[in-house]
Design brief:
Number of helices: 5
Distance between the termini: 22 Å
Strand order of the largest sheet: 3-4-2-5-7
CATH architecture of the largest domain: 2-Layer Sandwich
Radius of gyration: 28 Å
Number of domains: 2
CATH topology of the largest domain: Alpha-Beta Plaits
Order of helices and strands: HHEEHEEHEHEEE
Shape: elongated
CATH class of the largest domain: Alpha Beta
Largest sheet: 5 strands, antiparallel
Strand content: 35-45%
């Protein structure tokens, strides 16, 4: 439990005199505090970012090769269930070789998500024969996060009532009124995304990468201000 009194509270609670006259009547006997409840939950969705990259003398040649590779990768996924696919960024830019020769480099991303970690892991091993693995991320699906947050809201509000009652009895008040109540939800997973740089595809068979989904920490914070009666 964390209880933070507003800076003016020490003055507000002092009895009588000129000090009391200086206090805003609207802030008299106000107490501000915060409670939090959280839980650790296994991530249930995996997202991989793959990319096709090609460098050529002409921009059209580079783009054409990239388009073919992405089309091939998308075709590998089209008849499989349980995958969500979307294209990501597409760039074409001029570059220089170490010998200062001009070349065109094209790149397009393909983003694939699934709740079936093992199936997506095997798929990545297949796709890496022709496209590059850039990063892998894990998260909670929106449905799971909302369900967990709703349960935490109940716990956090129960904790608020307990702490408000503790403050009331400890300060000798007969009751309290809620002046302000904010509920803030947050999800934290510092290792949710793993960057694989640019693992280049060379057409050879690739063993599926070793991937672990990890956990997310879900919190609901209650910021409250009550007025003692």
């Amino acid at each position: 439990m964390k209880i933070c009194f507003v800076l003016a509270l020490g003055v507000v609670l002092l009895a009588g005199g000129a000090a009391a006259a200086e206090i805003d009547p609207d802030m008299r006997d106000h107490v501000t505090f915060r409670v939090s409840r959280g839980t650790k939950v296994a991530n249930d969705e995996m997202t991989v970012v793959l990319a096709a990259t090609h460098t050529a003398m002409e921009a059209a040649e580079a783009a054409n090769q990239v388009n073919q590779e992405i089309a091939w990768a998308a075709d590998q996924i089209s008849d499989r269930e349980g995958f969500r696919v979307r294209t990501g960024s597409y760039t074409t830019q001029q570059t220089l070789t170490p010998q200062k020769q001009k070349r065109w480099r094209a790149e397009q991303q393909l983003i694939v998500s699934s709740k079936d970690f093992e199936a997506l892991r095997r798929l990545v091993g297949t796709l890496q024969t022709r496209v590059n693995l850039q990063s892998v991320g894990f998260a909670l699906t929106p449905e799971s996060r909302i369900e967990i947050e709703r349960d935490l809201v109940k716990q956090a509000l129960a904790a608020f009532r307990e702490d408000a009652e503790l403050i009331r009895t400890s300060l000798g008040a007969s009751g309290y009124a809620i002046v302000e109540l904010q509920l803030i939800a947050s999800t934290q997973d510092p290792q949710a995304r793993r960057n694989y740089g640019m693992i280049m595809a060379d057409g050879a068979a690739v063993a599926p990468p070793v991937l672990e989904g990890g956990f997310s920490d879900v919190f609901v914070h209650v910021h409250a201000r009550i007025q003692l009666e």
